Amino acid sequence: MQVRLHNPKRTVDVDGPVRVDKLLRQLGLRREAVLVIRGDSLVTGDALLAADDEIEIRPVISGGAW
Q1: pLDDT of the residue at 61
Q2: Domain of residue 55, residue span
Q3: What is the CATH number of the domain that holds 41?
């Protein structure tokens, strides 16, 4: 599967199928710190990703004024 990461921007190929939580561990990422997107949908940590999926991983950004 092709995984597009941000911060820093890069693309990596990962063998699938694999669950989201395992993928994040392989990439050294914390689940709480990123959003995992397949197509137009967010996926949960227990979702199974297929070998032909295209995945995007974005950092969680929060902010705003009180």
Answers
A1: 84
A2: 2-59
A3: 3.10.20.30
